[in-house]
Amino acid sequence: MWARIVAVRLGRMRPHEHIVASVKDFVKDSLSFRGGKPPGLTMSAGVTHVYNVVAIEDALVAAVPCSARLREVEQRLENEVSKLNAERQLQQQVVQRIAQLEAANERLQKEIEERRRIEEDLRARNRQQAALAQLGQTAILGWNLAAVVDETAAVVAETLDTEYCAVLERLPDRQELILRAGIGWKPGLVGRHTVSAVAGTAGGFILRSDAPVVIPDMRQETRFERPTILLDHGVISGMNVIIRGRACPWGVLGVHTTRPRSFNLDEVGFLQSVANMLSLAVERHEHEVARWREKEILEAIFDNIPVMISFFDASGRLSHVNHEWERVLGWTLEEAQRRDILAEAYPDPERRREALEFILKAERRWADFRVRARDGRIVDASWARFALSDGSRIGFGLDMTVRKRAEETLRESESRFRQLAETIDEVFWLANHGAELLYVSPRYERVFGRSRESLYRDPRSWLEAVHCEDRERVQRAVEKKGAGGETDETYRVLRPDG
């Protein structure tokens, strides 16, 4: 038997049943071939193998039982490839998932940082609100402005976490500010140190600003002259607000740090709120000082004025009297409150009714009453009553007893004088130092032949009645008398009837 060379190209994992069928066809064609070259068998692209007919026949015998193993190997290879593909896909999915987790973690970190920032802001706001509540209560209950200002400086420094806090009060000359209270400053400065408030200085700039003044970096500040006290304490950042007064700024509230710091809007608003609260405390203190001064003045008047003063409350009960009231009428306030003082002072029911009606009406007019004192004396008094807004009444009384006696004595003296002046056969008149005539005797009209009214109108008109030959001499004597001398002149009078 001659051998034939067979070229077989095996494809990648081709089914073996197809190979066996191809080989059988090739053998059949080869057995019937008469001469020439044996036909070739070309299979799918791959490795080319060369067989002879005997080898092929032997291979056919062996190939048939090996096909099952090939299928098993092929299946295993396919399974391995599938596993590799699955692992590759899984690896890609893992990479994608890791990227997603990293992005989610980054977002989560940002959210955590934002939450921390928000929580810190909330804690800061809570501290600020608590500080404002504390300072507000101190301002309402505290009567000592110095204590209120000291506590304000301490609370502000603690709340804003600054090394220094200053409360500066504007002095009356308006040219300087004094460090009234503060935290962190060197000993001996609080209560003594002053800074300038003129234009060009930090104090002047702040007092002339309508908005809070924030200093990001004192080392680069060019808006005003840098204060020596801040440079000495190493201050870098700070902010200041005005403490307003009724007519002009009362002072400045400021905080300062030795490290660069940016103050946010909440912190600026907190400092301004504290300054506004402190402004109300200052105004309240000024009102209290004025009220106490007024009270002292009124108490001094009430206790020392020689006028009887009494208060009746809205129910008509005597509530207050002054020393003059007790001195004139003889009762103390406690004694007067234990008895019916109107019945004691006005025994006559009719006069008592008139007095009670006068007290209740409080018509802001003066009326005279005769009041019985504790020792039984009758006091001539002139009273005025005034109603107050709360329904109470205040009364003012003048002891007219001495005055009425003096007036009565004067009236009696004037009556005796007139009787003497009108009956004496002499001419005389009375004048004050201003040459104003006070009295002209009736005899003047009969002697000078002129009316007394003409002399009242012109006190020198009597010289016209002096004889022309005597007038110059008499006039010189009168002028000498006016200079402080005394004169006794005899002169002739020319009456209008000649």
Q: Layout of SSEs?
A:
Layout: E1 6-10, H1 16-31, E2 47-51, H2 53-141, H3 145-160, E3 164-170, E4 176-183, E5 194-196, H4 202-207, E6 213-215, H5 228-232, E7 237-244, E8 249-257, H6 265-304, E9 308-312, E10 318-321, H7 323-329, H8 333-337, H9 341-345, H10 349-361, E11 363-372, E12 378-387, E13 393-399, H11 401-423, E14 429-431, E15 437-440, H12 443-448, H13 452-457, H14 468-482
Antiparallel strand pairs: 1-2, 3-4, 3-8, 4-5, 6-7, 7-8, 9-10, 9-13, 11-12, 12-13, 14-15
Concise synopsis of the structure shown:
The protein is α+β, with helices and mostly antiparallel strands and 498 residues long. 51% of the residues lie in helices and 18% in strands. A hairpin with a 4-residue loop joins strand 7 and strand 8 (249-257).
